[in-house]
Design a protein that fits this description.
Order of helices and strands: HHHHHHEHHEHHEEEEHH
CATH architecture of the largest domain: 2-Layer Sandwich
Structural class: alpha/beta
Oligomer: single chain
Helix content: 40-55%
Length: 269
């Protein structure tokens, strides 16, 4: 369980929310375990919330009601959701770096397997007006791939939409470099890629499932310009079921590698 930290409520909206919940709980002389039981959550999650990691809106409504906050917590969470779209992935990226297993479905080559040139092209497509710090963003994405270089790399299993191999992102040269790197990546025993054929039902966005060293499971889903990071078991289970269906429809490892190799020829000059 995370240690109880001192919170400065003036530091950020997240800190203000944490202080509000902690103060309301202590006024009732409840332990974190007591609040967790009343809102059908875990003591660990309540501790995280009181250390500055706000609840999602569903859990927030339950806490608001139990602590009799009169809707103030819900209103703050709505404000946060409306103003924090640029930061929606922070929690996910933090936990991805320390996950022991990562399962992912993606419409493009996942960030952990992208070459710098491909990453830059993806970012340029996503921000037509120009990324404010594209050099730094590409560098940071590449730096996150260092998780595979340590003594205990995460088990990484990807279901990749076949269209990610055929669509030209950046240029044919960029695509060739990316596909060659993908083939090098799947040669590592802890990285697996299965191709979901273009004629199979997919999703309009990506799904990532993390298992942390603590055993906690989380889920992250992302569409165009917006994402959602979930820690509640019911939400994680729901996206686990989505991923399992996609995984069941994907080609096997050997067949998938053949598809990836064949894609190289489609990007010849």
């Amino acid at each position: 369980m995370p240690a109880q930290n001192e919170i400065d409520p003036s530091e950020s909206l997240e800190s203000f929310i944490a202080d509000m919940i902690r103060d309301a709980r202590k006024r009732r002389e409840w332990r974190q375990q007591d609040l967790a039981t009343k809102v059908f959550s875990s003591t660990t999650r309540i501790s995280e919330i009181e250390n500055g990691d706000p609840p999602d809106l569903k859990l927030g409504r339950q806490i608001d009601q139990v602590l009799e906050l009169g809707g103030a917590l819900v209103n703050l969470l709505v404000i946060r959701d409306r103003t924090a779209f640029r930061d929606y992935a922070q929690g996910f990226l933090r936990d991805q770096a320390r996950a022991r297993t990562i399962h992912e479905f993606s419409l493009v080559v996942p960030g952990l397997l992208q070459t710098p040139a491909y990453a830059r092209a993806v970012m340029e497509q996503a921000v037509p007006g120009g990324h404010p710090d594209i050099v730094g963003a590409v560098r940071r994405r590449a730096e996150r791939q260092a998780v595979f270089d340590g003594p205990y790399p995460p088990w990484f299993w990807v279901v990749l939409d076949e269209n990610a191999l055929s669509k030209v992102v950046g240029s044919k040269e960029v695509m060739r470099g990316q596909i060659e790197w993908l083939l090098e990546a799947v040669a590592r025993p802890f990285i697996n890629v299965q191709i979901l054929k273009a004629d199979r039902a997919g999703l309009p966005g990506s799904v990532s499932l993390l298992t942390l060293n603590s055993g906690e499971r989380t889920a992250y889903t992302e569409g165009f310009g917006i994402g959602c990071y979930m820690v509640e078991p019911s939400d994680v289970d729901r996206f686990q079921q989505v991923y399992d269906r996609l995984h069941a429809d994907a080609l096997g490892i050997v067949e998938s590698e053949e598809i990836i190799r064949e894609a190289l020829g489609k990007h010849d000059d």
